[in-house]
Amino acid sequence: MTASPIFAQIVTKNIVKSQIPAGQEISQLTFESIIQGPEKNAFNNDLLKGKVVMLEFWGTWCAPCIKHFPKLNDLATSFSEEGFVIISITDEAEEIVRPFLKRRPLNTWVVSDTDRSVIDDFGVNVFPTTVIIDKNGKVHEYVKIDDIDKDYIKGLIESTSSPEKVSFNLNDASQPKKGVQKIQFKGASSQESKAAPTYSLSITKDSTAKFEGGILGKKMGLIDMKGWSVRKAIANAFNISQTLVEGNEELLNTKLNVKLNMPRHQEELVNMLLKEGLKKELGLTIKPQEKEIELLVLSAPNGLSKYLKAPKSTKGKFSADDGVIAGRHWTLNSLIKNIEATLGESVFDDTQLSERYDYDLYWDHNDPQSINEALKEQLGLVLEKKIKKVESLTVEKAVTKS
Predict the structure, then answer these.
(1) Spatial separation of the C-alpha atoms in residues 171 and 118, rounded to whole Å
(2) Which domains does the chain have, with CATH numbers?
């Protein structure tokens, strides 16, 4: 059995932003550094004038972004001589991005926007985000990379619209930026921002849900999950593998919409609220019990490998998509959850690696078992079957006294 990755959409900030609207001319784009592309002294206005420009906002930690590298490389190569340029924009520093590109080549221009000025101008709070700028230097549309193909790009290139005056500037961070959009936070006034923190939790059944998705940010104090199964909600609340949550399958597969909002950095309290909320709202009893079972055990026979690197940033980020897992300043816990989701089996952590690391893992998503070899080759970790004593959870409907 295979399952969807734990995280599918990467929200960079929980805010509502203004964005440069379609049809508006982009007078200039200014970045801190050009990591990959033409030489800096060749980066002038004429370089992009009259060309279709695709801005791809991404991060080295963003698995859905990395998943699309083959497509971006194909588009960049196919239209390199036909008036089309892809500029991949990250908010990470050059010293982080360059080593990553050696491992995962990207054939586009790559630039660093560490102060997030361009990212904020375009109102980007989800990675990946794709923005198309037409030959006249105007925003054509915000589009999903999945919706772009060669015919789409060819149509834009062959558009008969005559180029107007375009002024792109990509190499002088000292110039003032035009058209900067103000960030608008939810709860607009300063008085609201000083109000006492709120704690809210809503759990409702949703029999119509066909898909699972949303925001799962326990460290941020934010959960907004739709179509979440009772089994997955309980597993997250108790920090246990969903394969160790047992009970009536119809009950455990019941779909929920779960919303939680509270101050950041209180993950233990988030878990407690989820546990109590699930019990109360759904009328459940959840009983722990120990038992011996055969399960997959993840170990690090040679200790900390060179592939699990010391974090280069203090900001923790993690994401996963088909065949890709990426962690920055992150523990192995989320890696293990995604291995379980990929293989549909419980995984016991016997690595004794409890610190935070930078790591990447790639495998053939059409062959789930290929993750075993990938773990060994790319992270120095071994996954094998063993008998272990573990704690499982038995979930039942609470018996009401008459």
Answers:
(1) 13
(2) 10-176 (3.40.30.10), 196-282 (no CATH), 285-402 (no CATH)
